[in-house]
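Input for the complex:
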Amino acid sequence: MKTSDFAGTGTLFRLFLRRDRFLLPLWIFLPVILGLVTAATFSAMASQGLQSVLTEFDKDPLISALLGPVMSFDLSGAIVWRGTSQLALVLGIGSLFTLIRHTRADEETGRSELIRAYVVGPYASLTAALLLAGIGNLAAGVLIALSIIALGGAAGGSFLFGATMSAVGCFFAGIGALGVQLRENSGTARGIGVAALGLGIAMAILNNFGGGDTLLRWITPMAWQRVTQPFAGNHGWSLVYFAAFAAVPAVIAYVLSARRDLGAGVLLARSGPPEAAPHLSSPLALAWRLQKKSFIGWLVGTGLYIVVFAAISPGLSNAGGMSDWLSNLGGTSWSDEVGLGYVFISISFYLIALFVAVYAMTAVLRLQKEESEGRAEMLLDKKVSRVRWMSSHLTVASLCSAALLVALGIAGGLVYGLATGDLSHEFWHIFGMSVAKIPPVWILLGVTALLYGLWPRITALGWVVWFSFSILELAWEAQLIDWSLMRISPFSYVHYTINITNLPLLPLFWLLCLSAVLTGLGLFGFRNRDVLTKA
Amino acid sequence: MNVIHIQKLTKSFGTTQALKGIDLTVKQGEVHGFIGPNGAGKSTTIRILLGILRKTSGEISLLGGDPWQDAVELHRRLLYVPGDVTLWPDLSGGEIIDLLGRLHGGLNVSRKKQLLERFQLDPTKKSGTYSKGNRQKVALVAAFSCEAELYLLDEPTSGLDPLMEMLFQEYVAEVKKAGKTVLLSSHILSEVETLCDRVSIIRQGQIVESGTLSQLRHLTRTTVNVETGSAAIELEKMSGVHDVSQDGLKYRFSVDSDALTEVMEALLPLGIKSLTAEPPSLEDLFIRHYGDDIREKGEI
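Predicted:
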């Protein structure tokens, strides 16, 4: 390593900063907003005194298994207790994608080659991207600290918490840097990053399940607040350990990057089959071929979660001592309605359905990627009509999202049934919870298809719709809005507070009809609009 | 002095051997054409020269340095234009040109303005909306706005229209006049014929011909059309004569350069009524090697 290996780092840093002028503030400010929302939720609940609310949560077996013991019984402590995993997730995703975007993605498209032929060292891109992520995480940490101080938190604890979160983000930046070295495509790096995030959350839950102070917390970024203990033990020195821990993947990344060619991975590129399989002969077959990998990824990821949740669910719900807050969510005594044993699994399926909707939307948006990158044209100049091309991806999106829910229902039903010992009865109950979510998921699929077909430039609005449905849920749980407003969300018709055997079927039928209409309008729109091409 | 000197260069990607012992010399001040079919190893060679791929074995010297070890120092002295330019879709063309110029260590602003005008490139457009040809222009404008000793151009004009192609040739000629060195990899043989002093033909990871155009022409056949006064001797049977076709007393055949004297001496006594001889074009050279390629593969 010599100085010239880093030539151009400063200019590249400015380039990356310029390219990320919208993205960077997004993931820097989002943690602050999430922290403030958490604080607002607790303030709203705390009419009878925040301390007693937190004490009650602390005793609730279900909640403390997920979030661990409360370390400090005040508003700052509540933000740390509830917010850490959310903030870690946002900073983790932001850091990972910043790294991938400026290293592997640039290599993949050939931009790095253009850059590297100038006076730019082999480590310049990697260093500039790490710098950007590092500075972003530091800024996010400072903002988090300032926002908690503004809410009345102690300065020392606030900065310690902010610094802990910065360290978590930096660790995932390192994971991103490491992931991009392995293969020649950025998809693999994204997969590695998402798997690392998922593993981190799972390990944090395991750590909380074990009381919050197991050895796992040392190697689980999502549980590092249990080491530094802001507003409680305030162990600032452990930040040094985290800095070292976070540097490990980055250092490995530097070593690996010196050992590979530009554009190549450390692992050799896999070659594909010399001939197309006979069935690869229609737009639908192509759409499935393009989306297969991501479907399998989602299936494995969501499957693991539902298996874990279904396995621990019967034990948790029957442990007794559930807090009033949880059993009276939104002011209903819903735990009586759905049955005590189903409380946790019911919420789990509700949440997973929101994520399956994300999957369905990304599967539809594959259309946009294919179009904007010019690959749609290559099919549309063949014997393929616009409607047929668009339906191919819509078919994959709808069938795969439904298949996900069916598979999750089967897996959850089996595990839950075996755990309770009453498989024949429980299986269908749990299975029903899962497949009932298909209509609302398809509504979001339909919304995305409609936007894509009619107004392709504002498909991002679909995410706004998804986000509003999620916010409605949070607002309802915090009793900020009442049920009639909650009805706007299609997910309310299969809400976890409704016993699956009492589920009204007519609204679900109408939801299916509505999703068909939305999708149809999207197809109609696409048939009549220009295919976007490069001028 | 040799600006580029490559000996027995090989490069393997896993089990596939992309370069099987390349020998290539580019002298100072020359425009060197580098031609060959797709997948022959042109871009791999250039990328090794840029130090972004590591050689498997062999000797390379670039501007007196080692392209892998001294990559960054060497890049101050060279400019590169790839054949398939990808840009940052959310940046404007003007921003990208300035960025690349800064990464080189400064560009000549008035020259940039002139280039933008002459290449008719709108620098305010986001590069995501550029067509292939316009993306290519961004890279060309950036490169020619800067100063360098060596220009590595890898199919730099792909996607350009003929007018822009001519403009490009003008700039290469200008660079050459200033005493700079150019390695031009190209598919457009007329471009190579107009611009290049020397040419190397690469095929299946090996250099099969290298030299000035007249040297290369000497190695190949001249096509002859001749009309004689009386019936010709059996041309087919003469050594060095190929592809004979006959229409009355008009003959058309190609002849190896070293058999030319012999053939002419044989024709002279018959009385030559008309005679045209076409020197081999670069295309013929290329097709001769490329054709071998096709024939070999056909036989397998």
